[in-house]
Amino acid sequence: MSTEAIAAEKPKRNYNALFGLTLLALLVLLWVILSLSTSSFASANNISNLLRQGSMIAILAVGQTFVIITGGIDLSVGAVVGFATVIAAMLINAGVPVFLAILITLLVGVAIGLFHGFGIVKMGLPPFIITLATLTSLRGIGLLMTNGNSISINNDAFQEFSRNSFLGVPNLFWMVILVGIPAYIFLHHSRWGRYLFSVGSNAEASRLSGVNVQRTIYMAYTLSGLCAAFVGVLLASRIGIGNPTQAEGWELQAIASSVIGGTSLFGAVGSVHGPLLGAFILATINNGANLLNVNAFWQRIITGALIIIIVYFDGLRRRGGK
Amino acid sequence: MTSTAQELHPAPVLEPGRTILELRGLEKRYPGTHALKPVNLAFKSGEIHAIVGENGAGKSTLIKLLTGVMPRTSGEVIWEGQPAALATPHEAMALGINAVHQEVVLCRHLTVAANMFLGEENSRFGILQQRAMVKEAQKIIDDLGFDLPAHVTLGDLTIGQQQLIAAARATVRGTKFLIFDEPTAYLTRKEADQLFTLIRRLKTEGVTIIYISHRMEEVFELADRVSVLRDGTLVGTRNIAETNDAELVKMMINRSIEQIYHKEHFTPGAAILESRNLSGKGFENVSMTVRAGEIVGLYGLIGAGRSEFVTTLYGRHRKSAGQILWEGKPVQINSEHDAIKLGMALAPESRRDQGLCLNLSVGLNLNLPIYKRISNNLLISNAQERTQADRQIADLRIKTPTRSALASSLSGGNQQKIVIGKWLAHGARLFIFDEPTVGVDVGTKAEIYRLFSVLLSKGAGIILISSYLPEVYELADTLHVFRRGKLVATHGFRTADHEEILTQALAEKQEKLGGQT
């Protein structure tokens, strides 16, 4: 490539990188402030805890971001997480080998995602409606299957996974990397990623350009379902039970992380690193507020305010940048 | 001109013949386009003033300025002797300026009565007086001689009936100046007659009517005066009694075309696409051939079936009968995907809605059809993505700072080039251009026409759809005229004159009259 072409690439890269760096700076700033103002924040124990707390929302946010980029929304992810803990717990307790139990759980997530795609593409339902419907009914199905009880998982190795660390980093955080790197390659370096953006920007133009819009939508929701089921497995491992009412409201945290990370709810704008940073910013705020003995109710208010501030400034800059 | 009206109707509300609205140097510029060059024109109260001109001549810009939808760039509007800002639709309505648009802009889910009083509901202590409103609306409708119920949902009426309601709505609001924008486009003859009765009646009440239409016979039937716009310039105003069809057409289309239309003739090669007795939704029994190196022009009014025909060729709609041959072999085209695979490319009529992903980069738009080719099973080759995009940007001289600039930041003409560029990269052989120069300034038009020659020289064939006669006339090697879903005439390059072609495309009205009475 000529140097000219490389120079030409700069503006957009700069913008994306700049926004990412701003988020990273915000995260580091929070960490510095909390390290200075509390004695316990900087402890290895607390940091590990923080990483564990943030990891699951981060993975959910990545799947959610794929959907939002196409201009849709997936409200079901929290319910899918809860449902997946039940499936995983039942399978493991029934003596199914752990790896097979995980695989089946993930396939259940895929099936739920395909169902969402079917509802949107074939039945013409708005994404909001079809995923809202699964949100409530999955909780119901899970409660039916468990009679409303929690299922204790009797497999220590399975539970230890989420408590252990590798190279000093909690296993759960490694899972973020395990999901994040392929997700990054998929979104930014494969044609399917490009199609997610193009469908979110203008489905009609994409269709006329030969893009299979229906398949793209199926793919986005399937990946979101897959991420959610994976988080369900991780959560089952962490709390050691299967319970369909777990992960209440996580879909909103995932959406918030995604939006804080620069994803546009109008579609066609988003990244992988943004939602990851967004999820850890939210986790840090919650963690810090706990340490500072801030009333738990305030945490919710702070999260809400943060969403408004970040999205407002991002929008300002996007408009100003034109 | 209004003297006849005065004699017939002795009690006009406003004094006819007085200037009600005057435009002084009214002008509108968009970035890169001079949509309306300074216009000086005075409208008299109680006159029906027709405005004619081709698509893109500036008619809709003028309406938007008068109704306060858009701010003007410069100039003055004098309303009843006072300068008026006309900055908002609300201000225009408060003065008494209303418009009835070609497309009905009302709430389809509300009742006719609710629509009639939308924004001015009749309520007592905050409670809507629904029954009273229905009654009042019914009275207005009956007075106007429309045989329509006021209590039904608007969406249950035909488009034509909805149009009548829109017109009725405009009359009850103290309107002194009413603009009709192609109101009869969707009306049956009977509905059109009802509308004309209403318009004549408004005229006797001293209301000024601006009547915009493509249909010459309506202009001559209704108007007192007619103004012609061409390329954003007011060419002239005539009293209807002192002009004729031929003069108006000449005023509408006469221009220095040689500078713009760049036409190279190539010897046509083998047939690329052939349609045999093709029928589908909106058109029937169309047969034509597109050969390598030739431009096939499709001319007709909007709604004549040209767009429907090509979208069927492109696999969007199913054909109901007939056959499509590609390079001599019969083919089934069931989806856009099939058409693209064969080597067809469509630059759609509405760039914004169908052609481009506006909030994504120029590069992504250019590469959209070829991502399969520039990626292996998993990854996109970044180098190829860059070279492909840069090559199209250079080849087509797309004016963009970088390939990463958003498509929305480019001018209309350059956006059109992106649409063309993405298909060039794909290696298409048959290009379908649906109204490629709508909303594009003259300089870019010329560039787009040069691109046609580039495509032809590479052995491609072009189908060019246009409602702008000079465009197809000067560019098409074969010119097909569509009317009401049928291919009614075929001409060679410049073998017919404008008037003949226009007559063939417009003859609809006489046919309709004959058919219905």
Offer a few descriptive terms.
heterodimer, A: 322 residues, mainly alpha, ABC transporter involved in vitamin B12 uptake, BtuC, two-stranded antiparallel sheet, two-stranded antiparallel ribbon, 13 helices, 4 strands, 77% helix, 2% strand, disordered N terminus, B: 517 residues, alpha/beta, Rossmann fold, 4 domains, six-stranded mixed β-sheet, 20 helices, 22 strands, disordered C terminus, Ribose transport system permease protein (chain A), transmembrane transporter activity (chain A), cell membrane (chain A), ABC_transp_permease (chain A), transmembrane helix (chain A)
Write up what this structure looks like.
The complex is a heterodimer of chains A (322) and B (517). Helices cover 77% and strands 2% of the residues of chain A. Chain A contains 13 helices and four strands. In chain A, the strands form two sheets. In chain A, strands 1-4 form a two-stranded antiparallel ribbon. A two-stranded antiparallel sheet of chain A has the order 2-3. In chain A, a hairpin with a 2-residue loop joins strand 2 and strand 3. In chain A, helix 3 runs antiparallel to helix 4 and helix 3 packs across helix 10. The N terminus and C terminus of chain B are likely disordered. In chain B, the strands form five sheets. Chain B has a six-stranded mixed β-sheet, sandwiched between helices. By secondary structure, chain B is an alpha/beta fold. In chain B, strand 13 and strand 14 form a beta hairpin. Helix content of chain B is 36%, strand content 25%. Chain B folds into four domains: 174 residues, P-loop containing nucleotide triphosphate hydrolases (Rossmann fold, 3-Layer(aba) Sandwich), CATH 3.40.50.300; 65 residues, no CATH class; 176 residues, 3-Layer(aba) Sandwich (Rossmann fold), CATH 3.40.50.300; 77 residues, no CATH class. Chain B is globular, with a radius of gyration of 25 Å. Chains A and B meet through helix 1, helix 8 and helix 9 of A and helix 12, helix 13 and helix 15 of B. Chain A: One of its GO terms (cellular component) is plasma membrane. Chain A: It is found in: Cell membrane.
